[in-house]
Amino acid sequence: MITRGNLLAVAVLLVGGLLAGCGDDSEPASEAKAPTTAASSAAPAEAPEGRLLTAELAKAALPTVDEVPGEGWVASEVPPPNASTVEPASCSPVYTEVQPDNPIYKDKVAGNAAVSFGSESPAGFSQVVVDVRSFTNAADSLLPINAGSLVDKCPSFTVIEDGEKIDTAVKKLTPIAVGDKQLAIQFSAEIQGTPAFITVVQASIGHNLVTIAHSSTIAGDPVKSYEPLVNGILKDLAAA
Asked: E strand or H helix at 58, and its extent?
């Protein structure tokens, strides 16, 4: 039976820390750049769930274990980020810039928070990481989605992690119809005979980007099952 440790080893190798370090890397809530009155008040054309958030507000919108679809989920630590490169380099954005915690976005983020859960069964192991991130400039919330949208130009590439070359494929899935712009893609690879699938679901609305990364040794398309979760996060953001 695949154990949690086995999957995490495979998943970290596959995605090089995709969402692995996506905890709160903004300033502490007590010191975070508080939105100005003008920015935090929803403008007539701005949906409440799209307004600028502090880290505290982003954390309040994260789901509980009972809200994650499926059974057997327990809180789990998010594995630390790992450095990796992509060949050819032209495909790197699909793999690295789709990550909302990529350092290139750090100065663009006003507040963010993330949570992780794991589930093990005789069929395999799965992990889900949920990230809520608010960008100071609303247009920047589209940057990770735009990077992932380049999948048509890079359906396959090689990830180099700790000197190991991993042949990786990526394909588009049907995204969840919510927010201003959406993305759903799935990375897949096989490492030492063990399959790994990383499904990335994203929705941007106003300043905010919601990202769900579902890692599993089990093949399948989990996107539709996460629609209630995404809608619940947006509802919480609107009510906060």
From this structure: helix 55-60
Which amino acid does the sequence have at 119?
S
- Kindly state whether residue 35 falls inside one of the protein's structural domains: no
The domain in which residue 185 lies consists of 4-27+47-239
Select from 59, 53, 52 the least CA-distant residue to 22: 59
Amino acid present at 179 = G
Measuring CA to CA, which residue among 139, 143, 107 is closest to residue 207?
A: 139
Q: Is the pLDDT of residue 38 over 80?
A: no
Q: What's the token pair of residue 167?
A: 């042949």
Using left for φ > 0, alpha for ψ between -120 and 50, and beta otherwise, residue 59 falls in alpha
Tokens of 125: 């192991």
Q: CA-CA distance, 171 to 203, in Å (whole number)?
A: 17
Q: Is residue 39 part of a domain?
A: no
pTM attached to this predicted model: 0.84
- Distance between CA 112 and CA 60 in Å, rounded? 10
Per-residue pLDDT of 101-122, as tens digits, reads 888 999 999 999 999 999 887 7
Q: How many separate domains does the chain show?
A: 1
Within a domain: 33: no
